[in-house]
Amino acid sequence: MYSTSAIGNTNGETAGNRMFRYEVSGLRANGVSQTPVRQSGSVFFTVPYNRMVAEMRRITRLGGKILSITPVGEGAAQPAASAMASSSNAADSAVASSNGAPAKGAAKAKKKKPGADVPSNIYKPKNPYIGKCMSNDSLVGEGGSGIVQHLTFDISEGDLEYVEGQSIGIIAPGEDDRGRAHKVRLYSIASTRHGDNVDDKTVSLCVRQLEYDDPDTGEHVYGTCSTHLCGLKPGDDVAITGPVGKEMLLPDDTKANIIMLGTGTGIAPFRAFLWRMFKENNPGYKFDGLAWLFFGIPYSANILYKDDLEKMQAENPDNMRLTYAISREQKTESGGKMYIQERIKEAADELWGLIQKPETHLYMCGLRGMEAGVDEGMTAAAGKFGVDWKEYRRQLKKEHRWHVEVY
Ligand SMILES: Cc1cc2nc3c(=O)[nH]c(=O)nc-3n(C[C@H](O)[C@H](O)[C@H](O)COP(=O)(O)OP(=O)(O)OC[C@H]3O[C@@H](n4cnc5c(N)ncnc54)[C@H](O)[C@@H]3O)c2cc1C
Ligand SMILES: NC(=O)c1ccc[n+]([C@@H]2O[C@H](COP(=O)([O-])OP(=O)(O)OC[C@H]3O[C@@H](n4cnc5c(N)ncnc54)[C@H](OP(=O)(O)O)[C@@H]3O)[C@@H](O)[C@H]2O)c1
Predict the structure, then answer these.
(1) Whose CA is nearest to atom 16 of ligand 2?
(2) 222 belongs to the catalytic site
(3) Residues 331-380: tens digit of each pLDDT
(4) Residue 114: band (very low, low, confident or very high) from pLDDT cuts 50, 70, 90
(5) How far, in Å, is the centroid of ligand 2 from the Cα of 26?
(6) Which part of the chain has CATH 2.40.30.10?
(7) Ranges in the chain annotated CATH 3.40.50.80
(8) What is the assigned CATH class of domain 129-244?
(9) Which of 6, 133, 320, 390 could cross-link 232 (Cys pair, CB 3.0–4.6 Å)?
(10) pTM value?
(11) Which residues are registered as beta bridge partners of 14?
């Protein structure tokens, strides 16, 4: 078999990137991106974590068979069978989970900043990936407000890969009113790294068409990029950049408690989390903590992904909770609008018990305006126990347990 010295210097440990050594047979051509080292009919090369999925796809395209994947400088090789089950599933089983948790048998991995290993900026605005729209479905029921769409794009031809909690950029076609190409707009990814078809070939978004009355002119205005996205038809091209974002990543710990505070399209990353936890069957990630979603929406008909969420909750009653704040249908005790912060206050005792546990993470995503509301709810909840929320929040942030993405 191989000798470590033969590959030792091919690609050493790079900062922020754990490396994996691949043993591959049957490659039709020397088309992989790392320099292979031939021994005993196999080739060996070293791949950083964030290139694993792309490299596996390339190997498959070139007719190669992965015989083993070994963390460089660490323990046992992964069996090729599990590595080949699907390219990202291979990364799931070889690497255990999203943010670079040590592979099995690699217990002494160096402690790194969360997100050090996640894919980042594979496609830049100057050279975006051109995907194809596969589907574009309405998420708002009758009587609901506005247009919100679930979109799925085919990304099978390129190297785009991502993990739950990241965003992609979209570039609308055409030019702005100064004759320049439109700027990138970010959208939270709503699918797991494996995509809605669990084949590693798609990425999905949850997009609201922005529309408002211009306060100066009174003109009814539609947002540029959100209108482009909401109007896409199957087969249409879509220019994609990224992925970006390390703020909203799931922790490696499968026993963590994940508290999600979302308004409107802020559900997108939480859909990805929940699908990974309860819909997929990943060998390297079996969720066994508590996932609690607080979801703020204007009307019942605006409960995005309602059927899926409720089915998932019914099937996983010990591991998932679902709390709606339906602002224009439900009222607080004092007759006010039911916002997410009111639900936080109602659940103060239980929530506070959870927040104090080191394995609990809180995520907030959606309207920028919710931030102050959530703070108000948390201040009341913490205040019941004599705790200063702002101080506590600083500590949670330091511990990488307080995750915020508002827009
Ligand atoms: C990290 C991140 C993740 C995001 N994720 C999502 C997501 O998952 N889903 C989603 O739908 N969106 C998401 N967004 C928002 C998204 O990036 C776009 O900002 C949004 O779609 C609007 O872009 P647009 O091109 O349609 O609007 P634009 O044509 O860019 O118009 C936006 C501009 O219109 C003006 N404007 C907007 N509202 C009003 C108003 N009420 N009154 C007066 N002027 C106004 C403001 O000047 C604003 O800058 C995310 C944003 C970020 C930063
Ligand atoms: N023009 C349209 O047709 C149209 C349609 C949908 C949404 N929108 C606007 O688009 C924006 C966001 O849309 P979206 O799809 O992401 O979300 P969305 O579906 O509108 O849901 C956002 C939810 O958050 C609530 N909310 C508002 N302010 C809050 C605060 N300070 N704290 C906590 N909760 C708060 C909203 O309540 P309330 O909205 O009841 O106050 C609503 O229940 C909003 O500004 C919304 O008004 C416009």
Answers:
(1) 264
(2) no
(3) 999 999 999 999 999 999 999 999 999 999 999 999 999 999 999 999 99
(4) confident
(5) 55
(6) 129-244
(7) 257-406
(8) mainly beta
(9) 133
(10) 0.80
(11) 17
Protein residues whose CB sits closer than 6 Å to any atom of ligand 1: 167, 185-188, 206-208, 210, 212, 215, 223-227, 265, 268, 405, 407
Sheet of 237-244: strand order equals 185-188, 167-171, 237-244, 129-138, 148-154, 202-208
Please tell me the distance from the alpha carbon of residue 275 to that of residue 312, in angstroms, as a whole number.
9
- pLDDT-derived band of residue 198, with 50, 70 and 90 as boundaries? very high
pLDDT digits (tens, 9 = 90+) for 53-88: 677 767 766 777 766 666 665 433 333 333 322 334
Q: How far is the CA of 310 from the centre of ligand 1 (A)?
A: 29
Is 407 catalytic? The answer is yes
How does residue 50 score in pLDDT terms, banded at 50, 70 and 90? low
Is 405 assigned a catalytic role?
yes
DSSP for 128-184 reads: -EEEEEEEEEE---TT--S-EEEEEEE-TTS-----TT-EEEEE-SSB-TTS-BPPP
| Ligand 1, atom 38: closest residue by C-alpha | 212
Ligand with an atom nearest the CA of residue 150: 1
CATH for 257-406 is 3.40.50.80
Asked if 107 and 77 count as a contact pair (C-beta separation under 8 A), the reply is no
Higher pLDDT, 144 or 52: 144
- Is the shortest distance between the CB of 96 and ligand 2 below 6 Å? no
Dist. CA 95–CA 49, nearest whole Å: 8
Query: Which residue owns the Cα nearest ligand 2 atom 41?
Result: 327
